Amino acid sequence: MTVRDILSIGHPTLRTPAAAVPVAEIVGERVQGIVDDLIDTMHHANGAGLAANQIGETDRIVVLEVNGNPRYPYKPPIPLTVAINPELEVLDDETVVINEGCLSVPLRGDVVRSVNLRVRYLDRHGIENRVEARGLTAGTWQHECDHLDGILITDRADPATLSTWDEFERHHRDAFIERISKFTELVGS
Ligand code: NI
Hints:
Elements: H1 29-45, E1 49-51, E2 61-66, E3 78-90, E4 95-102, E5 105-114, E6 116-122, E7 128-134, H2 135-148, H3 153-156, E8 163-164, H4 165-187
Bound molecules: nickel (II) ion.
Nickel (II) ion (NI) binds at residues 102-104, 143, 147.
């Protein structure tokens, strides 16, 4: 298990669509090593999620976990999840604007996300899982799966809302948290 360097916007691997992991390779040393490194690196950086592209690997693997995360104190908890070859199905037209950050991008910005998703993925043992995700948790899934397609928040964000973390804290955080807390109370997680 190794804390890896996280690639920053501009690195070509962040723009490379990741390849599906052959099921027979999931329990192998290479894939298990990537999974362990993703978890370690996400924890070290206090991320809510991390995709393989961000540590320089072009395999369709993401990890997610929210548990009192200091980067995103308003996010509902997500248990540690390893998702291999994840597939998202948008269940309806409901959307929400979420102000997102990313460990590979030094800015935050407002992104429109679907609110109701069904997610199918294989876990690190190769077992198929299906979960329904709502609200901010659905947003986290969409963010991480975007990475696997080479998409970053700067591609989706309203450019006029882009902000450094410092300026976000200073000028936008309170209004965003008030709006998103009301939304989270309504939809749950
Ligand atoms: Ni990201």
